[in-house]
Here is the input.
Amino acid sequence: MRARLIPSLLLVSVSATAGAQGPKVVTLDSPAPLLQVKVMVKAGSGADPAGLEGLAHLTGRLVVEGGFGDPKKPVTKEQLAELTRPWGEGAYPSVRVDKEIATFSMSVPREALADYVARVLRPLFTEPVFAPAELDRVRRETLEEIRSNLRFQQIELLGLLALDNDIHTGTAYAPLAQGTVRGLEAVTPEAVRRFYRTWYRP
Here is the structure.
């Protein structure tokens, strides 16, 4: 019987309080040829300013999908997909924004890590473009998820979220992690940049 190899885990934790010490890096080693990389930013929907509920969600998605590099000719999400394709499906970054954290996840072959960091991971987090057109696109998709999918297709989840909202009434944890319709509509490119400068400390 062949033993299953658990992929190695590389976890990078980033927060506004990291200061001069820089991000915290945790590794769980394994002989597996695949590395699971997670970057955790300690700012979820609970850090959304009043009236901008959904800002953390939009910022996280824009870091992955909004393009990076030269603002005049950024690497688009389509180009990112092409760039990461040789390293496997898991190499395209995904993001999940919860109440307290945003977690970016990706899988990379061990021998490709240095190349991946140089060509994808570092520019993704240090050179995001936050173009207004991309913000509008991500906002539309998020509003569609809330207005249609959640309200009419995920009734049980809607009930659980309503209960969660009731428990946390009056706190920053009350709104959906995705935000509110009013809050999402109020988010501007400058608000996204400000949130990024405050919480994302590459």
